[in-house]
Specification:
Radius of gyration: 30 Å
Number of strands: 28
Number of helices: 15
Helix content: 25-40%
Strand content: 25-35%
Structural class: alpha+beta
Distance between the termini: 17 Å
Largest sheet: 7 strands, mixed
Length: 607
């Protein structure tokens, strides 16, 4: 009896279903396996991962590569996600330098305004002059406090101080007259001397009021209405901080260059549409739906959108050996998000969150790359390899092995890079759609909006629930419930927000509160998975009306997520649709649908 391996190459994982199968007879399933995909989906870099997954499945069934009769591959379409723009609202600061890094322990309290003066130059300042002292690296906190106290005795009005070292509280504790002091300023040597500056420190538990208000800054620096408009980005970046410094610098000292977001041109069978990316994700998606099915998407040259889309084509061209000009983008998912932007003029590595649009672009390549994978596998393993079918069509066959399902049936296959939908009618007609945007895009949004710069950490935040460690013996879970422990927890997790990963607590090395992390995670999932679920089902509904679909089975790796399935189920419940996770072959859960479908396609006599 022939032994068939169905291989599903996904963006994140490669899955295998191994079975004894004869044309026209029920298959005997032997084993399954799942490994991380090597390389970008749909390229020859996938081969090592495929071989590993096959070896693992064969090992479980006590078989070897030589026992295989045929390997059946899905027709994989690569999806690349990227941030398509720097900002929608430009951050331009031409006459101010700001320090808004919000050190954890600023000293003193209140607002101080004066001329910036180096600490060792205070002796030459005339009495009555209002100054802000700049304390460089290497000055001991006791010496700094003594110099400031001496200056105050001589009648110099020291209004505040800026320090490089973590000494603010130690300095303030030794002053005869308390002033606001900000420390941990990385580039203290870049603070301009002889310029008007304002230092503000709020009391513990509160945030600054004056420097986070554009009119407050205007009052301090006596700005004109036109100049006040220019400091709005500064005020926005300082909202929520406990401390801040704003220094007025000579005109032209700080310059900002902004790259425009640009236009995207969406071409489809119903026409084409030009959309300004600054209009936001909603307008881009309106254009996509208006002209769909999409045949290609192009970006304006010299802009962020154009650069991102061109980069996608170049990467795929290099990987597949096809000219970049022949790479067609067959779908995009646009999502409004935020990206941390480095503030021009910042002296402590300050960032401000700016509006942005994230795009997941799905590239349509020829069948050639898949054939290259098949040829390489045949050469390596000496086994017949067949490209068996479209991913969504195979997934619906696999989904029908879920107990309690029958035709007509729709499936949502939610993976790492794409969301596929398919529907099979009672008379065996199958309609399917393949859309860009899934788990990898959610991870990208979490990584960007929380400013993590750590894709693995963002992936863990996406996949696992959170908790706040409130003592060494208990944590508060994100749903508000409390869990107690008999033995004390590790000291490094105390008072931290942690990820509850496989029985372990992974502390998050950032100061974001639990509620914010949870909100970012859930909103990212809704904007990607719920949006794609609704638009993909609308495309495959025989009448074009999603309400005419009765049953939906969720499959794919992202269907295993602890909250995505509930989100999609809630969204579809509004349309009267019965929806739930699949259980492929009654044993695999929502995994292995495509790989199982590939085996079934052999059983049904397909080439």
């Amino acid at each position: 009896m022939p032994i068939i391996a169905g291989v599903d190459i996904g963006n994140s994982t490669t899955e295998v279903c191994l079975a004894r199968s004869t044309r026209g007879q029920a298959s005997q399933y032997l084993a399954s396996s799942i490994v991380k995909t090597t390389g970008i989906k749909g390229t020859t870099a996938n081969v090592p991962g495929i071989v590993t997954a096959l070896t693992e499945a064969l090992g479980k069934a006590a078989l070897s590569i030589g026992d295989l009769t045929q390997i059946r591959l899905n027709e994989a379409t690569p999806v690349i996600g990227d941030l398509a723009m720097e900002t929608i609202t430009e951050t331009i600061i031409t006459e101010s330098t700001m320090i808004g890094h919000n050190p954890s322990t600023p000293g003193g309290m209140g607002l101080g305004v004066g001329i910036t003066v180096a600490l060792n130059q205070l002796g030459g300042i005339a009495g009555g002059t209002k100054v802000i002292a700049i304390i460089p690296q290497g000055i001991d906190f006791e010496d700094a406090a003594q110099i400031i106290n001496s200056a105050v005795l001589r009648g110099i009005a020291v209004q505040g101080a800026i320090a490089k070292q973590d000494d603010a509280v130690l300095i303030v504790n030794r002053l005869t007259r308390k002033i606001p002091v900000i420390d941990e300023v990385t580039f203290i040597e870049k603070v301009p001397v002889g310029m008007l500056a304002a230092v503000e420190v709020a009391q513990a538990g509160q945030t600054i009021q004056t420097l986070s208000n554009p009119y407050g800054i205007a009052t301090v620096f006596e700005l004109t209405p036109e100049e006040t408009k220019m400091v709005v980005p500064i005020a926005r970046a300082l909202i929520g901080n406990r401390s801040a410094v704003v220094v007025r610098t000579p005109e032209g000292d700080v310059k900002a260059r902004s790259i425009p977001a640009g236009f995207v041109t969406v071409m489809g069978q119903k026409g084409k549409a030009d959309v300004d990316v600054e209009a936001g994700a909603g307008k881009i998606m309106e254009a996509v739906e208006r002209v769909q099915p999409v045949t290609n998407v192009q970006g304006e040259a010299g802009t962020n959108a154009g650069g991102m889309l061109e980069r996608v084509r170049q990467v795929m061209g290099e990987l597949t050996g096809q000219p970049a000009a022949e790479m067609k983008i067959q779908d995009v998912l646009a999502v409004d998000t935020f990206v941390p932007q480095k503030v021009q003029g910042g002296l402590a590595g300050e960032f401000a969150l700016e509006n942005a649009v994230a795009l997941a672009a799905m590239v349509k390549t020829s069948r050639l790359p898949m054939q290259q994978i098949a040829n390489q596998l045949t050469a390596e393993l000496g086994v017949s390899v067949v490209i068996a079918g479209v991913e969504a069509n195979m997934a619906i066959r696999g989904a029908l092995t879920t107990p309690g399902t029958d035709k007509p049936l729709a499936i949502l296959d939610m993976g790492g890079g794409s969301t596929d939908a398919a529907i099979i009618t009672r008379d065996e007609r199958v309609l399917s759609i393949h859309l860009g945007g899934a788990g990898d895009m959610v991870t990208m949004l979490i990584n960007s909006e929380l400013g993590l710069e750590d894709f693995d950490l963002a992936e863990d935040i996406k996949k696992y629930p959170l908790a706040k460690v409130e003592s060494l013996y208990h944590v508060r879970l994100e749903d508000g419930t409390v869990r107690f422990y008999e033995n004390h927890l590790e000291p490094q997790v105390f008072a931290r927000v942690v990820i509850l990963k496989d029985g372990y607590m992974v502390p998050i090395p950032f100061a974001h509160p639990l509620d914010k992390i949870r909100h970012v995670r859930r909103e990212a999932k809704k904007r990607v998975f719920v949006t794609n679920a609704l638009r993909s089902l609308a495309r495959v509904a025989p009448t074009g009306n999603i309400r005419h679909i009765e049953f939906v089975v969720l499959v794919g790796g992202s269907a295993m997520d602890f909250e995505v399935a509930d989100m999609v189920t809630d969204a579809l419940a509004e349309y009267g649709i019965v929806c739930g996770r699949g259980n492929i072959r009654g044993t695999e859960g929502p995994r292995n649908a495509v790989a199982t479908g590939l085996v079934l396609s052999y059983q049904d006599g397909e080439a």
